[in-house]
Hints:
CATH topology: Alpha/beta knot
Structural class: alpha/beta
Number of strands: 7
CATH superfamily: SPOUT methyltransferase, trefoil knot domain
CATH class: Alpha Beta
Largest sheet: 7 strands, parallel
Distance between the termini: 11 Å
CATH architecture: 3-Layer(aba) Sandwich
Strand content: 15-25%
Radius of gyration: 17 Å
Number of domains: 1
Strand order of the largest sheet: 3-2-1-6-4-7-5
Helix content: 25-40%
Low-confidence stretches: none
Order of helices and strands: EHEEEEEHEHH
Amino acid sequence: MKGYxxxxxxxxxxxMNLGAILRTAHAFGASFAFTVxxxxxxxxxxxxxxxxxxxxxxxxGWDRLDEMRLPxxxxxxxxxxxxxxxxxxxxxxxxxxxxxxxxERGSLSEAxxxxxxxxxxxPTRFCVNVSVAAAITLYDRTLCMGGYPERPVMPxxxxxxxxxxxESRRR
Length: 171
């Protein structure tokens, strides 16, 4: 996959959600994970992070938004249901990106949204769980940035020729 990415949440309060985000970040190959102003209860993720992600993915826990530091050239992408957000299926992911999600039962703060280079929405009828939103976002990034072949016109998977061509490009 081209580039790198990180994923995190602002003001997250539940350890199970943060653990699921960390596990998802680890599974999709994130370069880092982060929180901004996380509730102290959310930081007790060790029981919910079953893949022990913190041993494999760098984690940054910033107490305030003004402490957040991203690598040079890294675009901040807010995942939020706003009227002017770009629908995720229409969004071109930056090569270097940090995705930030809002807290449970809430939204990204106005200050965080102002800091974002892009605001993207998952086109659902209502908000999904924050850890589900993280998984959907990273799956979409993988599809778009992973160099997978186009989906076939007919139901089913790609033919053997397409799979072999794709595998040879990955080597």
